[in-house]
TrEMBL record:
Gene3D superfamilies: 3.10.450.50
SUPFAM superfamilies: NTF2-like
Superkingdom field: Bacteria
Pfam families linked to this entry: AtzH-like
Organism of provenance: Winslowiella toletana
Record-linked InterPro entries: AtzH-like, NTF2-like_dom_sf
Protein name: Oxalurate catabolism protein HpxZ
Length: 129
């Protein structure tokens, strides 16, 4: 299927994904591991490539979240771009900074609408000096 511009960034779908994205952000900075777990696809094919770790499968992602320190998670986002394709697929990209660090972080997530809502199926986080 060729996707024309009528299927890209439909306002209602952008609103849904934006809400899910900022719900994730609130859970991340508040260390709400229950919501973070909810928003990832519960599947062994889910991938999260982090700044210092490569996590393959939901169980590895859960273990990482459980072991991660719960302090120093606040951050400021900039250059956030959310693009949707059709009604069921989206890519969210953002940069972030944390107080006390001179590094700029980058985060990219692939979201897919599943039967139980929007879920992250792949994510990548990296840091730049």
């Amino acid at each position: 299927m060729t996707m024309n511009n009528d299927y890209i960034d439909r306002p209602a779908i952008i609103a849904e994904v934006t809400s899910a994205f900022y719900r994730y952000e609130k859970a991340l900075t508040g260390n709400d591991t229950e919501v973070l777990d909810e928003l990832f696809w519960h599947n062994p094919r889910t991938v999260r490539l982090g700044a210092g770790e490569n996590l393959y499968g939901i169980e590895a992602i859960r273990a990482f979240r459980a072991a991660r320190p719960s302090v120093g998670l606040d951050r400021q986002l900039q250059n956030t771009v959310i693009t949707t394709f059709g009604d069921d697929y989206a890519v969210c990209s953002t940069e972030f900074t944390r107080q006390g660090s001179e590094k700029t972080g980058r985060q990219q997530q692939t979201w897919v609408r599943m039967a139980d809502g929007w879920r992250i199926v792949a994510a990548q986080v990296s840091l730049m000096s």
